């Protein structure tokens, strides 16, 4: 028998593999029992058709199979249909059009709402009936992981939607300047050689710097430690949120702060941000009306909107970081997908280049000229349709005490978590002909005329058929900035570089984790200066 080099806590006898097995079984039993109790204490959803296995416990067996076979099934090449979770959702979408069905999650049911009528009702429901915030705050455990002030008052969403969007035209030269500087720095070419770089890390640098140019300005947006912590923060919040969610509610106040990255990240971020924010408060106090040269960036916009306890140096540091959380990882994943798509479908290159060159020749690099780049816009839309960075959209929790009743008469009880199956909508042949073919110009072809251009098919226009940014009351307020940033980066890339996979290999497989669809973060791509 194998004897481990570990000793039982009382002293003499070594711990054997059998002991460890017993311990592991005990731990698994406790965890299983907890998950089961949690699931059974949720709302009664027996009346909703189930995909997966029929009964709750059987369904959980399905979930465990999904988890344990994760290695083979989570990394797939040709779409999420091959993982159990996605297979259930896709089967449900085909079997229950314009209806409601459920699939098992790890510790609760995921209710799926399909069809335009019911989805519209979700998108437009008031926060007091279907809550976006309770759904997202429970998923992220925002209070513990990012701060209670953020959970209590998400005023930053309004700031992003109004002040940031209003300033995109004025600040475009800065965005463009940062894109050029970041590309030049992360792709240091010598001659005409191909340069091999890790795709995700490289795109992350570019996105992080460009976003932060607008959020905190120069020189902080270029600080390697600050950009690194922005990215780590996003991942840490998501992981800690999941761990905290697994704790029984009564344990959370004591254990959650130990799992949360909040204090650690704030300490690190404060070194960079506190002096910047504090200086602005000091100038405001000293100069009053005469403080006219305030920087035009996120910090200032937040200072203008914040009130009471939200208007302190510490509160603003926390808030700036949280906006970065919403912005940077989402845009990095999206841009990495785009780069993979450019390399995987290189026949788009020539037309994209011609479009950018022709528009820039006439109008230069401005926000308005970006709006004239229909093919660039379309390529971004198609990449988000084809992969997206998630497979579900419109996440909500029923918070109306008597439940939420749909127009088809179905009432979802208080406490139900629901979504719409975005991947299935985006791959529905009745909505998108030939949906499993990547056509980078799918959306530009749909825009009616070159002169007028239908707003309906622009990447920023959300609809029940196009959900990467959600839809309705809580549609992403940062999508206007994200579109400007991503389109400007894509346009810069196509006119200045060639890109391909190492050894001309295939597009690296996406990584499907729960409902996320992540681009492979370890793959490498090759760039070279465009050969004219
Ligand atoms: C490609 C990049 C992005 C994607 C795919 C994305 C996606 C989303 C989605 C799906 C939602 C939820 C919508 C719903 O459920 O109806 C959302 C919300 C949000 N996003 Fe984005 N987002 C992106 C970039 C950004 C950026 C750059 C910012 C900030 C500058 C931002 C700030 C926010 C905020 C603050 C919310 C919460 C909205 C609310 O409180 O009502 N996002 N985003």
TrEMBL record:
Entry binding sites for heme: 476
InterPro entries (UniProt xref): Cyt_P450, Cyt_P450_CS, Cyt_P450_E_grp-IV, Cyt_P450_sf
Keyword Oxidoreductase listed: yes
Known cofactor(s): heme
Keyword annotations from UniProtKB, A to Z: Heme, Iron, Metal-binding, Monooxygenase, Oxidoreductase
Gene Ontology terms for molecular function: heme binding; iron ion binding; monooxygenase activity; oxidoreductase activity, acting on paired donors, with incorporation or reduction of molecular oxygen
Domain of life assignment: Eukaryota
PANTHER family: CYTOCHROME P450 (PTHR46206)
Similarity field: Belongs to the cytochrome P450 family.
Stated name of the protein: Cytochrome P450
Top-level taxonomy: Eukaryota, Fungi, Dikarya, Basidiomycota, Agaricomycotina
